[in-house]
Amino acid sequence: MRLSVFSVVDSYDDAPERDRYGELLDLAVAAEAAGLSTVWVAEHHFHSGGISPAPAVLLGAIAARTSRIRIGVLVSVLPFHNPIEVAEQFAMVDQLSHGRLNLGVGSGYIPMEFEGFGVDPATKRERFDAALLTVLAALQGEAVAPSSGPDGKRPLNVRPVQRPHPPVWIAAQRREALPFVARRGVNVALVPYATVASVDELASEIAEFRSHLPSGSRATVSVALHLYAGPHPQRARSALQRYLDSRLATQSAFYQDKVRRDPSHASAETIERTGFALFGAPPDVAQRLQAFRAAGVDEVLGIFDFGGLPASDAQRSVAALGPLVGPW
User: Fold this and answer.
1) Where are the domains of the chain?
2) What are phi and psi of 170, to 5 degrees?
3) Cα–Cα distance, 85 to 151 (Å, whole number)
4) What is the pLDDT of residues 147-171, one digit of tens each?
C-alpha cells in the first residue's frame, strides 16, 4: 500500500497572511524526502474551501521543486473546461515533470461551481464522457476536433512523456458509479468520510469495483483519509471539525447528503471513530492504516494539511509516517 499527500488547498479568512501555495510546495518537498508516492492537488473554484482553480499551474510549481515523487490532480473537473486545453495543459505538466504525472478526472459535485461556470449539473455526465474521450485521444497523439467552431481535426503540438498517456484515475462518490468506472479499466479514487459510514462498507465498495474490472486489469484503488501523526491530536481534531464545517458551508453535495441521513457525521469525533481520520502517535497511526490495506486499498491519499492546521504539523506528520508506512 502506498502513502501519498492529497491537498484540497483549503484557506480560511482568519489567517489571510498564510501562504498556502508556499506551504504546499514545502509539504511536497517533505513528502519526497519521506519517500511518499505522490503529491495530489484538487481543483476548486469560487470558495475558500479550495484555492486551487488551476491545478496544472500548481503541479508545474511542485514539479520544479521535486525530482522523484509523482504529482497528480484529483480531479480535473472536465465539464468546466475545453477538453483540448485540458489535454494540452497536462501534457505540458508531464513534460515538465519528466513523466511523473497522474491524471485524475471527475464530473464535479459543488453547486456553486456549476453556477459559476454556467453549466447545468444535469448535463455533467454527458459532458464528462465526451470530454474524457477527447482528452485521452489528444494525449495519445490523435487529431481531435473542437466541440464547436470550425471543422477540422488537429493533433496537439505537445505530447506527454508517458505513453500512450499518463495513468488515469476517476473519482467516484456514488456506489452506483463504481461499475462504470471499473469497466473503463482505470484507477478509482474514493473519499469515504463524505460517502460511507464504516471501513467495512468501504471494503464492500472496493470489492464491487474489482468485480467489474475487465479481465487482466491492474486498476488500483486510492482512498482519501485525514492523517495527523504527532503529539497534539486534539489540535488535529479541532482542525478537522473546521474542515468539515467548511465542506458543509460550500454545499459539498455528497457529504451534505451523508450528514442529512445521519447528522452525527458532521462531527469530527464521528469521522475519527469510523476510522476515516487517524490521529495519534506515528506508530499508532501507521498500525491503524493497515486496516485499509486489509480492505483492499492500494494507495492512501493522506490529507495532512486541513482546517488551518499549522504547516509544520503537516510536514512533521509526513516525515514521521513515510518511513513507517512505506510500500507494504
Assistant:
1) 2-325
2) -120, 130
3) 17
4) 655 677 999 999 999 999 999 999 9
**What CATH number does the domain located at 2-325 have?**
3.20.20.30
Reported as a pLDDT band with limits 50, 70 and 90, residue 146 is confident
Geometric angle at alpha carbon 174, from 170 and 180, rounded to 5°? 55
User: Could you give the C-alpha distances from 235 to 35, 203, 218, 308, in angstroms and in order?
Assistant: 25, 29, 39, 10
Indicate the SS3 state at residue 105.
strand
pTM metric for this prediction: 0.96
Percent of the chain with pLDDT over 90: 94
Q: What is the pLDDT of residue 14?
A: 81
DSSP code, position 1:
-
Alpha-carbon span 294 to 279, nearest angstrom: 19
Instruction: Count the neighbouring beta carbons within 10 Å of the beta carbon of residue 149.
Output: 7
The 8 Å CB, 24+ separation contacts for 111-114 are 111/251, 111/253, 112/46, 112/47, 112/250, 112/251, 113/44, 113/45, 113/46, 113/47, 113/77, 113/80, 114/79
Alpha carbon distance 145, 156 (integer Å): 11
